[in-house]
Amino acid sequence: xxxxxxxxxxxxxxxxxxxxxxxxxxxxxxxxxxxxxxxxxxxxxxxxxxxxxxxxxxxxxxxxxxxxxxxxxxxxxxxxxxxxxxxxxxxxxxxxxxxxxxxxxxxxxxxxxxxxxxxxxxxxxxxxxxxxxxxxxxxxxxxxxxxxxxxxxxxxxxxxxxxxxxxxxxxxxxxxxxxxxxxxxxxxxxxxxxxxxxxxxxxxxxxxxxxxxxxxxxxxxxxxxxxxxxxxxxxxxxxxxxxxxxxxxxxxxxxxxxxxxxxxxxxxxxxxxxxxxxxxxxxxxxxxxxxxxxxxxxxxxxxxxxxxxxxxxxxxxxxxxxxxxxxxxxxxxxxxxxxxxxxxxxxxxxxxxxxxxxxxxxxxxxxxxxxxxxxxxxxxxxxxxxxxxxxxxxxxxxxxxxxxxxxxxxxxxxxxxxxxxxxxxxxxxxxxxxxxxxxxxxxxxxxxxxxxxxxxxxxxxxxxxxxxxxxxxxxxxxxxxxxxxxxxxxxxxxxxxxxxxxxxxxxxxxxxxxxxxxxxxxxxxxxxxxxxx
Length: 533
Fold this sequence. Notes:
Layout: E1 8-13, H1 17-28, H2 35-42, E2 50-53, E3 65-66, E4 76-77, E5 83-84, H3 88-97, E6 102-104, E7 112-114, E8 120-121, H4 144-156, H5 165-174, E9 176-177, E10 180-181, H6 187-194, H7 197-206, H8 218-228, E11 235-238, H9 243-255, E12 259-261, E13 264-271, E14 277-283, E15 295-305, H10 309-317, H11 327-333, E16 336-339, E17 341-348, E18 363-367, E19 373-378, E20 392-399, H12 403-407, H13 412-418, H14 432-445, E21 460-465, E22 475-478, H15 484-490, E23 500-502, H16 514-529
Parallel strand pairs: 1-2, 1-15, 2-12, 7-18, 15-23
Antiparallel strand pairs: 3-4, 5-11, 6-11, 7-8, 9-10, 13-14, 14-15, 16-22, 17-20, 17-21, 18-19, 19-20
């Protein structure tokens, strides 16, 4: 498809997984399955005319896969990491429709918790390496997972593991504690009611999920945790990285006659007297400026805004979408808050954490240091590494509790560059101070004795600050007092009778997962276009 002036049947704004999936589903819907799409196709005696417009120079949104220098077979996801085997829409898309090769996402069998003084295995047993019990406990404490599971069971009156989405929806709607609906509790407030202070500190400090332990609607937070507590959960990822999902969808869109256009920032949105939606796009990304500058007008019969809430708010705040400026629409958009995330990845020539004591090649841990969740990969043990190559990666996934520690190591110039979306590993190179700091903290967290081994600094360190515009955060959380099951339906068409629709992970019932994004797109397709599930 050429980017010309012909009226589109469906214009999708946002080239993340939500927007690409929406475009592909519209284009692949069989004739006769949707009266609305059949009517659109009838305008041109063929498939509906569909195009995706992305403001940055890459597709994928918060799916970001990068390849370390000199190790092209290896890919590192700096955004979404994985999906569950229970995520039916993702499994069908990735493994059946796109046919992408996948692998189990296993980091290690003996995940470890790294408090700043004591280290102990994630199951709560005492550390034989340190020769002492974890501080303040006799015997060792329950693991953060067990603490959380017990707390949720206390609140809902049943074991949370294995509950179905329908059962969790009922808990969201009907659940209560101490005479208040669960949706009127913040998670932090509720947990303090049912946990000891020590248990709460243990979970918030070393669970690796500091952000979700805070200002999150408890009705939705409990459901999120409930789905992540079961031991032995089957996690998977495409071997080419999560961003390969976006590339696969883009290819399918092109094959079906649709178009995907990067470098198109939406700078204006309104409904014309003829009932068409007028879209104005800047000639190239201009997210740092308020002036429209040179722009291109496009018209569409329907518009899908697959944009993060932060991007929608910026559009309204700058006076570029008056149709979305009604306070009621603003309340819908603001029903969720972005969760700040900041990821740092180090490349080492060897897996130095294995040299001091017997340790698996790869493992996952969490810490109350400014590291969040730490995942270590000794990739030279993998069959796909070039002959004789040695490469190990350590990646720290940080959220709100530790963001400031890292952001202060980024200069304004670095932050401006990081706000742009690029393609290559080198585009995300970390400042020298950040590389040195994460290396220092990793040595401390792993308990490295310099008299035994002094690991060489990483030869490359990259980072991704997801708090930067246009995302605002790495995922989203429902605000306290919002009824998610109501908003998720209303936001689909926030302005009654206007052919403008909103979708994405932010407004789903499975926030933080690709599955949530796809579920919300499916809801939109059913409501707006009569597309069957």
